[in-house]
Write a structure and sequence with these properties.
heterodimer, A: 275 residues, mainly alpha, MetI-like fold, 14 helices, B: alpha+beta, Rossmann fold, 5-stranded antiparallel β-sheet, 8 helices
């Protein structure tokens, strides 16, 4: 309500600043995306569709979706559990844990990939045991999943923790005094109250997982038909000078991202209103 | 269900919130925990409900120790200071919650909800969300929700703290009436003495984590056991002096003291209504100011050689006869309480 009522006349200087901000955003955000879309569409819709139906492109896209869904499920589960632990309990080492959660945000995905190679790769720390089990992690799908999990871990946890903090514990306590078990309290009171924060975290996770490049390239090696994801498909296609394929895939990812952006905005508002 | 609390102690870090408190609430009683904010009243209530764990001491319901019981297993209804209604549920779903988690049938839930909505004067509001209600309505929903599963004990934490004065007054009457109908053992926390005295059967005065005194409103008003209770309850004059010849001397005013040895420093507490003023040119004090407060008049007088003393009389009282600002008066103390000074 108040959001709409606040439009008022701007002074000349304020107008100039608004104009500059828009110009800046246009230059660094809209222009590249626009160029991408134009260039992709210039290839002709027919060519685009054709390139996207080629097996390598389809496999890459499906692999990316597969990895993203696993990340959403696993980080949704551990994110909610972790957020509950961090906000509802006081224990030794809580601050350290709290700081560790943000580590993936600070570390470059390429370094993440390298670290995973050190642990799981040829001659890595866990190479022997994994070999015995017949498991291959690096240059295989498990490596992609692990690397993407690492990179996307903070989003759900942070969003849910933020909402839990805002919420306080009184509704949960009320539920307990009314005879609800801890499990019932979680399902009937806590979860409905955090649902928009959780949804927001999931969408952020999804967006990040779909767009991850550095970590999956280093860990997976972008082997066509095996570890080539949507983003590494673009990279390979460019290397091979197959422009139509590269731009077609890029456009598709851009469209998904914009759709997610709309979802993010909607969830953010719902989360802020709490209902 | 009767409640017995013995030797309850609770620290928050270095802060001693509850200091060795023992008390008994008889089955069916309506009890007020009265005292200044931060005195430990709410903490005791929360320990009884199982929402906090005591460092030491026990809580027993009908003689059965309850310390090991999860809050959900105590059969206690709790009304939170800021309602704590489930914001994503309608009023009806809020009220039905307790029965729902116990697995009561939908029909039973709906019956009980209808019953409570009517009892609480909330009929027709069942489909609303808490955010669409006024403060007083939310408070009544919170009460209805707590009562729905038929708790054996009802605990209310500053139940009327967050509503305005008029609604507060209504809710008070209403809590008393409700208790007379439902008869569930109830404890409510308040810092408002009028609220405690007008609603409760028993008042327990709690200060700095200690139980200062427990008794009926009359007992607490007429026989305050500690200096704190005497000062805190009702409006009173407080004089610090030393006992000499069986009396405390406050300037030119002599106040008889019984049972305390000569030479002891004492604190004398004299209630506004335990004083009489007579016009007397040879008197020991002079009237400084008279203020009309509705149907009462507050009289402020200057005692010769000491400080001010206050009293209150009904506006048409004969005791006010001839008394006017500037006149000299004789003061008769009909009742004074003396407490050996703690310092």
């Amino acid at each position: 309500m108040a959001r709409r009522a606040r439009t008022r006349q701007l002074t000349g200087a304020q107008r100039l600043i608004v104009l500059l901000v828009f110009a800046y955003l246009g230059l660094i955000l809209v222009l590249p995306l626009g160029a991408l879309a134009l260039h992709a569409l210039a290839q002709g819709p027919g060519t685009l569709l054709l390139t996207l139906t080629e097996p390598a492109a389809r496999q890459g896209l499906l692999l990316t979706l597969f990895v993203a869904i696993i990340c959403v499920a696993a980080n949704g589960l551990f994110g909610v559990a972790g957020a509950l632990v961090l906000t509802r309990h006081r224990f030794l080492g809580r601050r350290v844990l709290d700081a560790l959660v943000d580590l993936p945000l600070a570390v470059s995905p390429v370094m993440t990939g390298l670290a995973f190679l050190l642990i799981f790769g040829r001659g890595g720390w866990l190479d022997g045991p994994l070999d015995l089990l017949g498991l291959q992690v690096t240059f295989a799908v498990p490596g992609l999943v692990l690397a993407t999990l690492f990179v996307t871990f903070p989003f759900t946890l942070r969003e849910v923790a933020y909402v839990l903090e805002e919420l306080g514990t009184s509704e949960e306590q009320a539920a307990m005094t009314l005879g609800a078990s801890p499990w019932q309290t979680f399902w009937l009171v806590t979860l409905p109250n955090i649902r928009f924060g959780l949804g927001y975290g999931i969408v952020l996770t999804l967006a990040r997982a779909l767009g991850e490049f550095g970590a999956v390239l280093v860990v997976g090696g972008a082997i066509s038909g095996r570890t080539q994801t949507a983003t590494t498909f673009i990279y390979n296609a460019l290397e091979e000078r197959r422009e139509a394929a590269a731009y077609g895939m890029a456009l598709l990812l851009a469209v998904i991202s914009v759709a997610l952006l709309v979802a993010i905005e909607w969830l953010k508002r719902r989360r802020e209103r709490g209902q | 269900m009767g409640i017995r609390v013995a030797g309850l102690t609770k620290h928050f870090g270095d802060f001693l919130a509850v200091d060795d408190v023992s008390l008994t609430v008889e089955s069916g009683e309506l009890v007020a925990f009265l005292g200044p904010s931060g005195g430990g009243k709410s903490t005791i209530l929360r320990i009884i409900a199982g929402l906090e764990t005591a460092d030491a001491g026990t809580v027993a319901f009908n003689g059965q120790p309850a310390d090991h019981l999860h809050p959900s297993a105590r059969g206690v209804g709790f009304v939170f200071q800021h309602y704590a209604l489930f914001r994503h549920m309608t009023v009806a779903a809020n009220i039905a919650f307790g029965l729902r988690v116990q697995g009561a049938s939908r029909r039973r839930q709906a019956e009980r909800v209808a019953e409570l909505l009517a009892l609480m004067g909330l009929a027709g509001l069942g489909h609303r969300y808490p955010s669409q209600l006024s403060g007083g309505q939310r408070q009544r929903v919170a009460l209805a929700r707590a009562l729905a599963p038929e708790p054996k004990v009802l605990l209310l934490d500053e139940p009327f703290g967050a509503v305005d004065a008029k609604v507060r007054e209504e809710l008070r009457h209403w809590l008393r009436k409700l208790h007379d109908e439902v008869h569930v053992t109830s404890i409510f926390v308040t810092h408002d003495q009028e609220e405690a005295f007008s609603v409760a059967d028993q008042v327990m005065v709690i200060h700095r984590g200690r139980l200062e005194q427990a008794g009926t409103p009359d007992e607490i008003l007429d026989h305050p056991r500690t200096e704190f209770v005497a000062r805190f309850i009702g409006e009173a004059n407080v004089f610090e002096t030393r006992v000499q010849g069986g009396a405390g001397q406050v300037g030119a005013l002599r106040i008889p003291v019984e049972g305390i040895a000569d030479g002891t420093p004492v604190c004398l507490v004299v209630r506004f209504y335990d004083l009489k003023f007579w016009r007397d040119d040879q008197g020991c004090a002079r009237v400084v100011r008279m203020t009309t407060l509705g149907d009462r008049v507050k009289v402020e007088a200057q005692i010769d050689g000491a400080g001010r003393i206050f009293s209150q009389f009904p506006r048409r009282s004969s005791l006010l006869h001839g008394i006017a600002p500037g006149c000299r008066i004789h003061i008769e103390v009909t009742l004074a309480r003396a407490y050996a000074a703690t310092k």
